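pasting for the record
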Amino acid sequence: MADTSQIWTARLAELNVTLPPVAAPVAAYVPAVRTGDYVYTSGQLPMVDGTLALTGKVGADVSEQDAKAAARTCVLNALAAVDDLVGIDSVVRIVKVVGFVASADGFTGQPGIVNGASEFLGELFGDAGVHARSAVGVSELPLGSPVEVELIAEVR
């Protein structure tokens, strides 16, 4: 039987993706918690090198394309939290993703924005990245972020 202990690390390398350092919490919480066979991440913002990559509301200040890219950054930060806690190669599957989109009045394209996270998870994990999901429009997010993403991963 083939050794699958480093499968996700190898897949990240194939995709030429490096997980970022775990984003420092902006309030009183931890980036991820394990209970049983599951890791729950806190909501992750599109932080890059300790700085929020962009601010504003999608459909007004932030383009759909930029917001979708921000959702991908958020999920990379969530995966970094998983990796820091249990190791990325412990992931069995992604169970659920919740995405929040700071939306301008009348903006209803939240599912397309959160696809930035979901599509990357599919690219990385294949069938193990197919997940349940919610994409929610909100009036404001922490620090003025346009997107926030959290996930639940089953781990071994």
